[in-house]
Amino acid sequence: xxxxxxxxxxxxxxxxxxxxxxxxxxxxxxxxxxxxxxxxxxxxxxxxxxxxxxxxxxxxxxxxxxxxxxxxxxxxxxxxxxxxxxxxxxxxxxxxxxxxxxxxxxxxxxxxxxxxxxxxxxxxxxxxxxxxxxxx
Length: 136
What we know:
There is one protein chain. The protein is of the alpha/beta class. It has one domain (about 10-130): Rossmann fold (3-Layer(aba) Sandwich). The chain is built from six helices and five strands. It has helices at about 10, 25-30, 30-40, 40-45, 75-85, 95-110, and strands at about 15-20, 55-60, 85-90, 120, 125. Strands 2-1-3-4-5 form a five-stranded mixed β-sheet, with helices on both faces. Strand 3, helix 6 (about 95-110) and strand 4 form a beta-alpha-beta unit. The chain starts with 8 loop residues before the first helix and ends in a 10-residue tail after the last strand.
């Protein structure tokens, strides 16, 4: 196991959520390497200490544009899990997640202030504590 000092037992008692998405059907068909790397984040969560049964992959938004979250059920599910405090970590392509962070930001603030979630992406790994963010 390759643990991180940022991950606490409280994180491990919640789900590891993998958010997989590509914006168009063309990307889904022709950019298989990106998909492979995004799905490989499931093994990364396990290497960080999550049990396989505690890792959940959300890939309902494959081939859907990110222009609006309204029709993206996977993203809505992700926001719900964060809001309810069910996610101990979110792993996603960092480019995907950075664009979504501002949309998710309000969900963190609607929950308890002691809620801590980590985000880790495929190209850059950073600790993320929503309790340290200023309110919007």
